[in-house]
Every structure is written in structure tokens, then in C-alpha cells.
Amino acid sequence: MSRIDDDNIIGVVGYLMFKKVVIEGANTISSPLTYGFPAITGFLGSFHAMSRKMVDDELLSDVCLGGVLLACHDCQPQMYRPNSYNNYTFNQTRNPIKKDGKTASIIEEGKCRLVMTFVVEILGTDTLTNEQQDYAIQKTKQWLQQQRMAGGSVRGLARFEPVQFFGKDDVSSITAQLLPAFVLMDAQDDFAEIIDKVQAGNPDATPLDALIDVCTLHHIPETQKNGDIKWLTTSRKSGHGWLVPMPIGYQGISDLYDAGMMQNVRNPEYPSQYVEAIYSLGKWVYPQRLNSVGGDNDIANAFWRYRYDADESLYLVTQNREF
Predict the structure, then answer these.
(1) By C-alpha distance, which of 43, 66, 71, 39 is closest to 54?
(2) Whether the Cβ atoms of residue 318 and residue 280 lie closer than 8 Å to each other
(3) 222-245 pLDDT, tens digit each
(4) Which NCBIfam families match (predicted)?
């Protein structure tokens, strides 16, 4: 997926909105430690594939896709528990059966049903003509329904105006189209503040300790005047909004090997290396809070993009233009 800061050669010339996309069977295990909403890379990868199709199309070869805004209307992990005191387990099937007719062993996986709205930047050197706009709407709708999305299958879009085009100066008019949903925002600033607070109370605490503390509910007994005990529930993320732990990319943990050196990689024609997941915090924000133009919640800052740092072997998805 191209970036809008590649030597300032190309810039945003418009936006495509894919409204209320229904995705069945999306991968709900976002990392080795987190589950629920799929990993951001699952969505960016899908639109990267769409961008490559645009390059091969005669009418759209002059443009590509950039950052992606993620707005979630509904997320239902497919899991079950027999009663409120049991742990949840993922609903799983053993498909297909083996040659001898027996069921294969299960590799644990979790699935979810999503209803999402995506807003994607269109990058180019010139504005799109009316013919190109109509053609882009038609073709991207077709492509979206033909490819996988976060490991799931696209089952449908909004009944009316499922794909819309917005000019580069009409970004503020997108907000109303996102309701009702929650937009996923980067919360690294909140995470840094929480880390400072945790380390102020415990100098030996690590950022991982802070991340775990965000996911923890603290039950504290408090003695009332009449002698009764009242249990208070507190959380480290109180006052920071709806924070969620999530992976934001990968950190290289080995040398970068030349193409063809590593076995069983998905794309053997590219250099490869071993990596591990990097974690941070995200924040679900109501779309009406994205109206502060120029502020932290400016809708123009809500687009997730790839970032690569060769010196530090970092492969990130972030909403920040700079590291």
C-alpha cells in the first residue's frame, strides 16, 4: 500500500467509503496475546491487494490506495459458555474430514462476525474525472466482494449507496456517514501516560506490566461507617476512554534473509526475517468526536498506514506521520 509521504510525489485526491460491510468468519485472534477485534493488518492487507488490482486496470492505473479508517458497527466473536461462571470457548468445526473419513485434529482458531465501514484514501497526482469516480465505485465494490477480508468472507454491503466517493476537501462530511459506529484510534499517548503512572508506583515495572494492568480490574474492599464492607472496582484506564490492547505491527528478531533463503514463507520472492508482535493501546472513539479539525481527533488523523523502519527492523501500522 502506497504512502502519502513518499517524497511528496503523490497525495490524497479523494476517498472511497465502503459502507456497512458484513464480514463472516473473520479471524478474531489478533495476536498471540489478544483476541476480539481482528488485527489491523488484516484489513490493510485486503486493501493493499485491491490497490494492486487498480494499478493493473487501465482507467485506474494512475491512482492507488493509501490509509484506511476503520469504523466498527458490530463485532460478535463466535464463542460459547454453558453458564456465567464458565470460561468462554471458541465455536470450532473440523473441516474437512480426512481420507479415512475421520475428523482431523483442531488447530485452535477463533472467528467473528463483523459489520464495518471503511474509508480509504485514494492517492494520485491529479483529481479523478467523473468517469473515473463512477468506474472506481463500480470496480472496487466488485473487488471487495471477491476477496478475503481479515480472513473472513464479505457477505454484503449497505443497501443504499454501499460505495461512495468523496473529494479531498469533503473529508469532514464523512463523519455523519459513519454513525452509528466506533472508530479505532491510536492511543499511544494514553499508553505512555499510563506507563509513567505505573512506573511511578513501581520503578521496576515494565511497559508489559502497564499493558496487563490496563486489562485488569482491581477489586478493593472499603469499610463503611456502619462496619459493612463494600467492594470497589477500579481500572487503570479510567478517564482515558474506551481503551483496548492490540498489536500494531512486528519487530524483527533475526537478520533479514535474502529472497528464497527461508523455507515455507508466503512470498519466497521477497526478503524475509523472523519477527514478534508489538503491542500498544487503541481507543474506540464515537464519530461525532472526530469533528475537531486540526486537533488530536481530526478525522484526517484516523487513517491507519504502514510504516517501516529498516534501521530498527520495525514493521508498524500507525496513524502518526512520524515515529
Answers:
(1) 66
(2) no
(3) 888 888 888 888 888 888 889 999
(4) cas_Csy2
Residue that the C-alpha cell 482431523 belongs to: 104
List the chain domain ranges: 11-186, 188-282
Contacts 24+ apart (CB under 8 A), 193-199: 193/240, 194/236, 194/237, 194/240, 194/281, 197/236, 198/236
**Do you know the residue count of the chain?**
323
What pTM value is reported for the model? 0.86
| Cell numbers placing 216 | 485488569
* 312: three-class secondary structure by DSSP: coil
Which residue type, as a one-letter code, is found at position 250?
A: Y
Among candidates 178, 180, 191, which has minimal Cα distance to 299?
A: 178
Q: Is the dihedral of CA 174, 175, 176, 182 positive or negative?
A: positive
Condensed to tens digits (0 to 9), the pLDDT of residues 105-158 reads: 767 788 999 999 999 999 988 888 899 999 999 999 999 999 999 999 999 999
Distance CA 119, CA 117 (A): 7
In one-letter notation, the amino acid at residue 138 is Q
Q: Which three cell numbers stand for residue 116?
A: 464495518
How far apart CA 14 and CA 91 sit, in angstroms, is 41
